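User: Hey, my collaborator sent me this sequence without any context and asked if I could get a structure. I don't really work with proteins. Can you help?
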Amino acid sequence: MASVLLATVVLLSGCASLFSSTTSPDGSGLCFVPSRIDTSTFERVGDSALERSATRLPDSGGVRCAQAYRLKAGKTASVYRVYGGKGWRFGRWWTFTRPGTDSASYRKDYEICRAWNSLDSLAVCALKAGTRFAIGPGQSAVCGNDPGYGTSDSLQIFFANPQTDLDIASCRFEPLVWGR
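Assistant: No problem. I've predicted the 3D structure and written it out in structure-token form, which is a compact way to encode the shape of the chain:
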């Protein structure tokens, strides 16, 4: 029995290293280039549980690796979420980038399947002081009958509890009309 338990632990330990939440799958050791985060506004924090919560396996959407950050005291920042259909206005996935005018490009940049989200509304919210979030580049997504999406370098923000991490009173909601 002890040998079976030991073999199981060894096997699981080996699998854990396959999907590190903080390093890139390409072996470079970086999830993304740190200069893509404004370090005057955000600071890196150790929160492996949050990073693991955000990291997804290939073809699942989300992010392929993540790093945890916190909004520094006295700083402000806004985040954007495009939602609609099954996509809830206070979902866990956001971005620091306001959407452009092309919904097809947005879907590709953020690996959003049509069945998950109709992309017809925009939420803009401020972060609460001290808010922690995970951020990383997009993971691939399989979308059933629709074309899927490969990985993306567009950074996505993951909130464990959006309704407590965001300053809900500051949120603005508006219909989103995409250009043609």
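In plain terms: DSSP finds four helices and eight strands in the chain. You can pass these tokens on to your collaborator as they are.
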